[in-house]
Design brief:
Length: 396
Amino acid sequence: MKTIDQISFNGKRALIRVDFNVPLDENYNITDDNRMTAALPTIKKILKDGGAVILMSHLGRPKDGPTEKYSLKHLVPHLSDLLGQQVEFADDCIGEDALQKSKEIEKGEVLLLENLRFYKEEEKGDVAFAEKLSKLGDIYVNDAFGTAHRAHASTAVIAQFFPEAKVFGYLMAAELNNAEKILNGAAKPFTAIMGGSKVSDKIQLIERLMEKVDNLIIGGGMAYTFAKADGGEIGTSLLEADKLDLARTLVQKAKEKGVNLLLPVDNVIADKFANDANRDVAKTGEIPGEWMGLDIGPETIKLFSKVVEESKTILWNGPMGVFEMDNFMAGTKAIADAVAKATDNGAFSLIGGGDSAAAVAKFDMVGDVSYVSTGGGALLEYMEGKELPGVKAINE
Ligand SMILES: Nc1ncnc2c1ncn2[C@@H]1O[C@H](COP(=O)(O)OP(=O)(O)OP(=O)(O)O)[C@@H](O)[C@H]1O
Ligand SMILES: O=C(O)[C@H](O)COP(=O)(O)O
């Protein structure tokens, strides 16, 4: 793997694709800066080596060109704080001003470019747009693992303009190494914990994991499709009605492969989708008509926790319930505790990005697990065995 360690940045301008697609509140405060802090080691190393840094990223999914809401300028103060130096900003990612600023940048300085997605050419993977971006730096560094599954101008297409000078940043390398630990050479027992809202998002991953895991735990909203497929009553719980056959097939496959498939045995139910809803506990398959399951129940917590605590490798993707509401976060918190305990006992635990990462951050437990990925979709696709365009572009 070609990384920033194999190249000299002294006197060079590094054009780094980062994934600064962070959540912002209505006042443009960053509510989770994990993706920014995760990119710091690469930036700092290049600055220390005597290089200059030009950062490019997308933020959100702007549809109609420049929009205040999606401007990367909102990140400048926090990024400057994190780096301990003032970060310059170019309010267009291409054009005269960006070109001029990139030429004037000195050793040790950092320039952040405006949102790449203000140009539709970015997502289209437009070659001419990629070429314009490529003029801004001498060396291309891809450290945007969260966006590596996109074949966009800045994540993949641009690499062709740096045939001798394209490398992975530390974050990208760490993400790929940690994912490899799970995919190849996982110590046993290996347990995958799948949750979140939809089974349809994770079918391919679940099928692939069946080949590797000893235990497959399914919780969260997706578990109700399995309960319904088993003939149970699920009230108004989340259901993917067109995935009932698939759920039955997955249960059958687990049996054939000798995988220990664990589904919830009880559930915390609510009479509406709100934190102040009336609550009760119901056995799986026995949820009354107007009620919905919003978390795993106490018996399930015991069952799942025991298996997790005895594991040596753990992959967790997707919360066990609606952890954003305090009254329905106990299941997700208990599983986080079990993962932390196993990790303390020597297990390797990888938390898939997106909502599971947000949950672990909410519980202030990032330091209690082995690795929290910055990738949501990218991690899923990598785990499913797909080649990520952002990775391929550097390797080829
Ligand atoms: N029983 C449930 N009923 C309704 N929603 C649920 C339930 N359990 C979990 N959720 C919701 O599922 C959402 C997470 O689902 P998602 O499939 O997006 O998970 P993820 O894989 O962690 O996220 P990402 O795809 O961003 O990585 C959370 O917002 C959570 O509130
Ligand atoms: O948040 C993510 O998963 C990445 O930043 C990619 O964003 P996208 O799904 O809008 O391409």
